[in-house]
Amino acid sequence: MTPVLQVSGLHVDYAPDVRAVRGASFAVERGEVLGVVGESGSGKSALALAVLGLLPAGARVRGSVRLRGRELLGLPDAALSRVRGKDLAMVFQDPLSALTPVHQVGDQIAETIRVHAGATRRAARTRAVELLELVGVPDAARLARAYPHEFSGGMRQRVMIAMAIANDPLAIVADEPTTSLDATVQAQVLDVLRTAQQATGAAIVLITHDLGAVAGFADRVMVMYAGRAVETGPVGDVYRRPRMPYTIGLLGSLPRLDGAPVRALPADAAPAAEGCPFRTRCPVAVAACAVTEPAALPVAPSGQVAACLNLAATERPGAVYPVPEPVPAPDRPPRRARPPVLHVSGLVRHHPQYRGALYKRRVGAVHAVDGITLDVREGETLGLVGESGCGKTTALMEILRLAAPPGGRVSVLGRDTAALGRAGRKALRRDVQVVFQDPFASLDPRMRVAAILAEPLAIHRVPKDRTAARVRELLELVGLDAALAGRYPQQLSGGQRQRVGIARALALEPRLLLLDEPVAALDASVRAGVLALLRDLQNRLGVAYLFVSHDLAVVRSVADRVAVMYHGRIVEIGPAGAVYGTPAHPYTRALLGAVPVPDPGARQGRVTLPGGPPDPSAPPGGCRFRPRCPRHPGLDAGRARLCAELDPVLAEAGDDDHAAACHHLGAR
Amino acid sequence: MNRRTRAGLALLAALFLLAFAGPLASPWSWDATDFTAFRRPPSAAHWFGTTQSGRDVFALTLHGMRKSLVIGLLVAVLSTGLAAAVGTVAGLLGGWADRALMWGVDLLLVLPSFLVVAVLAPVLPGGWPVLVVLLAAFMWMVTARMVRAATVSLREREYVLAARLLGAGTPRVIVRHIVPQLASLLAVDASLNVSVAILAESGLSYFGYGVRPPDVSLGTVIAGAAGSATAYPWLFAFAAGLLVLVVLAVNLIGDGLRDALDPAGRR
User: Fold this and answer.
1) B residues 119-158 near A, CB within 8 Å?
2) For residue A657, pLDDT beyond 60
3) Fewer CB within 10 Å, N or C, chain B?
4) Which residue of A has its CA nearest to B171?
5) Computed from CA positions of residues A243, A249, A252, A255, in that sequence, does the dihedral angle turn out positive or negative?
6) Domains of chain A
7) Contacts of A57 (CB under 8 A, 6+ apart)
8) CA distance B39 to B186
9) Predicted local distance difference test score (pLDDT) of residue B266
10) pLDDT for A17 beyond 90
């Protein structure tokens, strides 16, 4: 049987010296899912675009892409358009820009059917509704008439999947289809993609940087590095017995929910131009690696192949990277004895909503933050987690304003922010600093690194003659070479930029650092390095962190305490070990269940939470989590009524400051 | 730098050289009178001919161009500077400061600027510097709106937020983080304003509301020849030609800068 999609010897060059893909070959059978994983710059997106024939003008492509034996490379545009959308379908990362905003989604799906199958308007429309039902869009007949902006991200991605399978494609290429979605929604979308695949029997190429998503979904996996496949094989074999040092490092650098230490892959070394491109980061490189680029050799009877010259050294994958020495926690007095750096009580932030074209009426308010209470003590990290829209970033920005909040109180180092004057607020800014999510946006592109790091010093009138020394000190503190001081941000890698961002925040020796998704935009191996740096800095400087993230595994690896937010409220708060080990609130449990785990065996037994994050302008009465709660439907009438009528408050849920807001903490 | 910018810069440099060094090459001064030559066409003695009162047109035109260039540059710098200051402050502060400043902008926009300048310039003491201020005062509003819009989008950038959260005040944020981003927009705008200002000055002077005797500008030179343009074309042709060249040079620079700095236009 010939494979449905066969790619052989594919090369993509963007310019003579930018070789994005260097000889990729793979084949996907009917009904099979191939996961293509790699970090940014690995060439996986260029590969996807080449297969789809969507490379930008200027790019040169060689090799062969065959769809059921038919060569696609070199086909004229018109012929390719007949294949694309019919036999070869695609799902992109950003469904908002992939759907036309001015047409109803039902019409957009119907259009793909009519263009390729020549169905009548009515038949195509009926089929569109069927497809929407298949991908789990509730009330499909009505929502087929809705426009893309009326859907949530997860629902839009379902529409994209419906469109992809509309013409019973032979193969679907999905490029980062779940990347911008919340973990709970991510799990739902992958489920839908699986349903869609079973309905059509299509082969799927899933391209992603997320090893967790691949583990639960793909049959085979191909790991790319510097434009080449460095390891390919059945997903179970590759994850359990990886043989290429890069794969081993990538899997080892993922933060884990059980809090086990990660074995960081040395980050930020450019791929070598000659020999094995990975040798610049490889712990088991030998002399031959500098000369020959290894070919992929079989390493297991299952068909697993790995491209490494030193396969003997990777017989035991666990021994390739050293386990980091556990850093002894500095001797600190117990938590209760340490003074709080940040104390927030009953913090409220509503965004008023207005409607009307001429006369604006206030029609309600988005309850972004609706009364949260927390404290962060000296030298500890509080992780604030939740799905997008839960209010965690709003809470952080409200604290950063250092001004009187619309409701509740914020006090920093014992000083109430409502009572601060202009000068007092500026002085307090020395002690409260922030690191942003996007290291590309948070550094001024027109300033050199040295000027960026000197700015906080200048603002707070540190004498000029001490600035240069302090800048050098800061660069060393975050593990950057002093030579980088003269560079502009765009000449740095993502990880280096984020380190500059951290150095800037630390310039004035703050007592509290607020981190807004500081590693969300970074590759897995870079992320591990930055997280290790943050832990190290805390040990050395004793600075407290408020760490906001949607990624529970990341929070587990840095936080001492964790607060889980839902719909503007904290639903569970406590020591990290207790919250992750014995989660009390059903929402926390569902979140933990939705985290993609890089273990193919963990596919079974996952509970996916129904629905998406709720409409923040209209909280349901009673318990806000009730509509999505897996515990609620199983309750008897009397106890269920409690949920519908009474908004639960945080209550003791075990020892040691562990509390959760649920009426039925004992229930399973 | 592309070819058009280079050509514009070379042309403008040549015109400046001509305006400031050219009179040295001529034996005649701009205010001297040759009682032996009235209204003579161009000749070896008077390269651009003479006026009816016997003044050397070459010296007179170059002297006028000198003034026109100076006025154009000053007006452009003043108006773009004012636009940058008002636009960034309004955009960055938002709220009532924004509303008040933009209200002022709208008010100035609806005033018939040519008339106001024509009425005010002759009655205010101070000569041509007052004209510069008046012209600048009516040229900055559209740019200020553009700057404000650009600032509003820059204000949301994380690095601007980061600077504010470090405790940076508004002046520092504007000077260190906003203006450098707007530099290209402002450079293009200033260069185009030079030609607008020179044309406006010439127009006003032509009608007698701009530069007044004893000062001379390209506008007054052209105005002086207005009655006899067909019979004695040298009286205005050189001045008009130089005016066209100045505006052309400045527009070439402005367009070239815009193309060079606009990321969408870059290949």
Assistant:
1) 157-158
2) yes
3) C
4) A459
5) negative
6) 5-218 (3.40.50.300), 222-318 (no CATH), 444-509 (no CATH)
7) none
8) 45
9) 41
10) no
